[in-house]
Amino acid sequence: MGSAIPVIVGRRTAECADVVVLDLVRADGLPLDSWSPGSHIDLLLDIGAEAPLPRQYSLCGDVGDGTRWRIAVLREQSGRGGSAHIHDHLHEGAATAVRGPRNNFPLEPAPEYLFIAGGIGITPLLPMIAEAERTGTPWRLYYGGRTRTRMAFAEPLATTHPDRVTLIPQDEHGLPDIDAIVRTAAATTAVYCCGPAGLLDAVESTCRTAGRRPPHLERFAPKARKSDETADGEFEVELVRTGVTCTIPPGRSILQVAEEAGADVFGSCLEGICGTCETTVLDGTPDHRDSVLPDGAEGTMMICVSRAASRRLVLDL
Ligand code: FES
């Protein structure tokens, strides 16, 4: 994702209960890199630890605006402290740093889009909706949340696109009926979903049962694994560029061991959800345990969580 870029909070607004919107501008006044709908950045938080704490946020502003990157941050009551730090310390004028952008959730051309959002999962879908509007591609959005007042961007979306947007506040309508929603879409409609794990799993299994193409999903938390997928055996990894072969013991990741061996590796989320540590596999069979790559992915792996299904892996590291 490149090196850290110093930025300043140029503008901060309260979007709805517990959600703030930050417009980040470069501290040196230069333009920011271009990005595409579905991209995220790493916000590098100085929480007093030895190294900055990286947290991933989807870009939700205007792709054509090179002067600022917009993110929306939900204060997570049971989070690990990153979002609370942002809410409490990143006021207008505060300095911080970012890395990126990176896109694991690109908007692919399709005759029509079905967008399904849960809570703060609306953020990556906002620039997708803008892009669909720009290209004149038909779309629909079903957006669920606990209550109307806690659903970021809900009102402007529903007001601007009353025929395309269906809001489903849980306290008024219950949980979204994913089966019925997916049934409304033609077989060629591309389905994009972002939100809590339960919603993503429901959309994924509904599409599978209906014989549809897999949906495009963006996860904020690692996908649940079956217990037989989580056993950690020992295996060998040859790091071609570094010129060493390492043993990866149970309980340690390839990324940790490779870093100690002097390989030029980089991780951010360390949970298999951001895609930062994606590494080319030259030989051997990975045991994919990330939540980014599609099932059966070949050629690359996320070395922060994935392991080996063969005795040895050869990596371009
Ligand atoms: S560090 Fe995020 S996927 Fe590996």
Explain the overall architecture:
With 317 residues, this protein is of the alpha/beta class. It has three domains: 5-102, Elongation Factor Tu (Ef-tu), domain 3, CATH 2.40.30; 113-219, Rossmann fold; 227-315, Beta-grasp domain (Ubiquitin-like (UB roll), Roll). Helix content is 18%, strand content 32%. The protein has seven helices and 18 strands. The protein has helices at 82-89, 125-135, 154-160, 170-173, 178-183, 197-209, 254-260, and strands at residues 5-16, 19-26, 39-45, 53-58, 69-74, 95-103, 113-118, 139-145, 165-169, 190-194, 216-218, 235-239, 244-248, 278-283, 286-287, 300-302, 307-308, 312-315. The strands form four sheets. A six-stranded antiparallel β-sheet has the order 4-3-6-1-2-5, covered by helices on one side. The chain is globular. Residues 267-270, 272-277, 290, 302, 304 line the site of FE2/S2 (inorganic) cluster (FES). FE2/S2 (inorganic) cluster is lined by residues 267-270, 272-277, 290, 302, 304.
